[in-house]
Amino acid sequence: MRNYSILLYGNHSIMGTTINTKASLFHQYEKELSNPVAMVLKAAEGLAISVFDGLMQVTALNKKQLAAFIDATPKTIDNYRVRRHKLGRIESEQLLQLLALYKKGQEIFGSSEAFNQWLKLPASGIGGIIPFDLLYTAGGINLVMEELLRIEYGALA
């Protein structure tokens, strides 16, 4: 079946074609995920709240968890949605960095669920810290991404 790059929630079947949110969200932001300058420029524009919703599906995180990662509350997220406001540049950049992290995590571990399990275990390459606890800042996301790259290339500490 073909994957189309439109943002929907979950896997939906339209006229016999399966649309996969994970693939489409990764595809939609492919340029930003592979180019830091493009990521910063896109973040400066602000992302639609639908990206937050799509990222909840991709990451298998709930609204409270994902909102906390961008220093927001679920109520703030709901207000953005009701008012149809774009997310701010810092929130947008954090979401794009999380999207890039989950893309890499899924490549390495095979699924969001397996990656989420790894995120909750102490990682030796980052001093035994639980990676999930670092996802609240851009620097923390970068540390976890570096650990994933070490795992990917077999350069474990």
What are the main properties of this structure?
9 helices; single chain; two-stranded antiparallel ribbon; disordered N terminus; mainly alpha; 157 residues
Commentary on this structure:
With 157 residues, the chain is mainly α. The protein has one domain. It is built from 9 helices and 2 strands. It has helices at residues 21-28, 30-34, 36-45, 49-59, 63-69, 74-83, 89-109, 112-119, 138-152; strands at residues 11-14, 17-20. It has a two-stranded antiparallel sheet. The longest helix has 21 residues, at 89-109. The N and C termini lie far apart (41 Å). Residues 1-19 have low confidence and may be disordered.
Number of helices: 9
Given helix and strand content, the structural type is mainly alpha
Number of strands: 2
What portion of residues is helical?
55-70%
- C-alpha Rg (nearest Å): 16 Å
Secondary structure: elements and pairs:
Layout: E1 11-14, E2 17-20, H1 21-28, H2 30-34, H3 36-45, H4 49-59, H5 63-69, H6 74-83, H7 89-109, H8 112-119, H9 138-152
Antiparallel strand pairs: 1-2
Helix pairs in contact: 3-7, 4-7, 7-8, 7-9
Describe the structure in brief.
Helices cover 61% and strands 5% of the residues. The protein is mainly alpha-helical and 157 residues long.
